[in-house]
Amino acid sequence: MTAPAPADAPHHPRLAVGVLAFCGVVVAIMQTxxxxxxxxxxxxxxxxxxxASWLVTVTLLTGAVFxxxxxxxxxxxxxxxxxxxxxxxxxxxxxxxxxSSHIGVxxxxxxxxxxxxxxIPLGISILRDELPPERVLSAVALMSSTMGIGAAVGLPIxxxxxxxxxxxxxxxxxxxxxxxxxxxxxxxxxxxxxRSRGRFDVLGALGLTAALVCLLLPVTQGGGWGxxxxxxxxxxxxxxxxxxxxxxxxxxxxxxxxxxxVSARPAVLLTNVAALLIGFAFYANSLATxxxxxxxxxxxxxxxxxxxxxxxxxxxxxVAMVLLSPVSARISAExxxxxxxxxxxxxxxxxxxxxxxxxxxxxxxxxxxxxxAAGTAIAYSALPALVMRAVPVGETGAAxxxxxxxxxIGQAFCSAAVAAVLANMTFLAAGRPAPTLGAYQLVFxxxxxxxxxxxxxxxxxxxxxxxxxxxxxxRRRSGRTRAMPxxxxx
Length: 490
Description:
The chain is mostly helical and 490 residues long. It has helices at 13-32, 41-45, 49-77, 79-99, 103-115, 119-130, 133-164, 169-188, 202-225, 230-250, 260-263, 266-292, 307-312, 315-335, 337-357, 362-388, 396-424, 437-459, and strands at 2-4, 194-196, 426-429, 432-435, 474-477, 480-483. Helix 6 (119-130) runs antiparallel to helix 17 and helix 15 (337-357) runs antiparallel to helix 16.
């Protein structure tokens, strides 16, 4: 059930789309901005390498936990209100990182920055509620793609800052941009007119949090702990047990944190599985490219490129994502989002074929990485369209949050797989261990295989017919657009 709530109509819908997309890019950049800094953190802060790795791990954990939770809160209490709060958390986290070099404070700041990734599914939900039907697909495609765009441009931006400025500067800048985002959202983005009825499921949120932490901690830290250690296996077992208990509880709650009956529909379940596989395939591109071009020439394949050059290799992919999001929307409008997602998975697989056979030249590496990014742009644009046509309007925020969560889980598994492969397939080059070319090629095979699996899952999705009242089911009343609830069984 949904209920209308008073909302101020946007005077400039195009401006609202641009503002939300800008917010999405900013929060996505925050996820990767410290990656080039990690090798220097022990020297800069006195922390151990294991502690430094938490600057990435904690962001992944808080992003995974807060994305579905804040999506649900937005459905119930106002999407713009929660989006502004998430941006406020980003600002606080940025300031904490800017004012301190203590590893504990930095980890706390990064945890707050990670929670802000919920801005992307919240923005998608606002666009669905507010825009006229003919503009929803293109706007949602752009908003969803910001997750990949931010990841692609975050590395070169961070590399340039690190090489030319004092490292705290990038956190001051991110805090200032976060404040600008808040002002722009308050001025240009309307509050969604829809609310879900009922109470917030506190126990469901805590259970989901516990299950995700017990799953993602061993996935991200298993390489250091040992994949067969008691701690790793114990947490994985705990995640399974907690998930089963949580699922049984959610099926009995009147207003659950995650509506498992809706999530179990083939259209929703298979879309989320595809999102996990696409997330895996996409992240391998970023991880492998940035490291591969920096390998020394003594390896026989490395280019000895600088940190800045390695980051710039991903920039054409970010540009491709911006340009291709409207193309994906047109494909989805004419042929259905299932066709878009299938095409995207095929393009990603082709990109990894290119990467497998052309790993010695900078330009062919960039070309292969850009092909993968192009496929990712189309995929990330199609996924929310598939979700929105399959869930009730009042659950859009939670459903898109869950889909974004699945992409993040895919990225976490990819990070663990890439780290394991590159750490175990090494040889001596110029007196130091380095990954073999075969290690990188194996990564490309894994990622290409994930893309092909995503293609197979996509082909099993129900047909392309959009349900009435979902993506395009809106009516115009008194000069503004309102989303109409769909039938529960649609």
